[in-house]
Design a protein that fits this description.
The protein is α/β, with parallel strands linked by helices and about 290 residues long. The chain contains 13 helices and 15 strands. It is elongated.
Length: about 290
């Protein structure tokens, strides 16, 4: 640093005042230089750090990320360009915001993480109902996704589903045949729905339909948050010999946008051990067998 300052003074014949300003500038520059450790931070690590920042905030600033990762703003811009090409972010002036696809992924992952212990227990109990060679319908719920993960070794099983997540989970299971129903991708989740999905269901018959619920009220009505999904749920039950409702105890005592049926429409309700007695008694009163997991 000392050599560069002497060369500067010699070349422009700087006054003492100007010389002092040059020294301050050089010192600030050295202080803000990235360390050897952060200067060589791998690109993959930087991209992951940016994704993590976007989980906490819907947008990031180039300047702020450059300071946090101790790299140049140009490096951050290149990183954001890569993330935009991968559809993870959308570039804005001076930074980036979360892409809609990424928002959906975060939302769906959050739904999957909620009450995992209860959902896994319910899925395990449902697995005991399924036999080799059967045909089953799985809806688009996160509890049925847990059930799908337990079916990979069931010989001769046919799974009919409008869920992209379920189909993806079972696509490499050698013993399982997967039928993915057609339809329109439901906004906000990896599901297919609509009139085409209902039409596709018409050509099938199944031994079981396994469905989740958004809510169950004190009168035994079962709810969904979407009209089209509710219609698909009804058609699933029509095409199955037996229907099973998978609902953890948090679903009871609430309502949602639309009724998709009642507890009478299901032969079995599988819920967790924290389910209130009122729910269990109500289900039995409506001729629905209750299994607590």
């Amino acid at each position: 640093m000392r050599e560069s300052i002497l060369l500067f003074v010699h070349s422009v014949n700087a006054t003492p005042k100007k010389f002092l300003l040059v020294i301050v500038h050089k010192i600030e520059h050295c202080v803000n230089m990235p360390s050897e450790k952060t200067r060589h931070l791998p690109a993959a690590v930087r991209l992951q750090r940016i994704r993590q920042a976007l989980k906490k905030s819907p947008g990031v600033s180039v300047r702020v990320m450059a300071e946090q990762l101790r790299v140049s703003e140009m490096t951050i811009r290149r990183d954001l360009e890569k993330l935009q090409q991968a559809a993870d972010v959308r570039r804005t002036h001076g930074g980036a915001v979360v892409a809609e696809r990424t928002v959906f992924e975060f939302s769906y992952q959050e739904r999957q993480r909620a009450r995992q212990t209860e959902k896994k227990s319910i899925a395990f109990a449902a697995r005991q109902l399924i036999e080799e060679g059967q045909r089953i319908i799985l809806d688009t719920g996160t509890t049925t996704l847990h059930l799908a993960r337990l079916l990979k070794d069931v010989r001769g099983l046919t799974v009919i589903t409008p869920s992209l997540a379920v189909a993806s989970e079972l696509q490499y299971a050698p013993e399982v045949s997967v039928v993915l129903l057609g339809g329109v991708i439901h906004r906000g989740s990896p599901d297919l729905t609509g009139p085409l999905t209902e039409h596709c269901l018409d050509v099938f018959s199944a031994d079981w339909a396994f469905q989740g619920a958004e809510a169950i009220d004190s009168s035994g009505h079962v709810y969904n948050t979407d009209l089209q999904l509710a219609q698909v749920d009804r058609r699933m039950r029509e095409k199955a010999t037996r229907s099973c409702l998978l609902a953890d105890s948090s679903k009871y005592g609430h309502t949602a946008l639309i009724r998709s049926g009642t507890l009478k429409d299901f032969e079995i309700l599988i819920t967790d051990k924290n389910a209130p007695r009122t729910l269990c008694n109500l289900a039995r009163k409506m001729s629905c067998r209750v299994i607590t997991a």
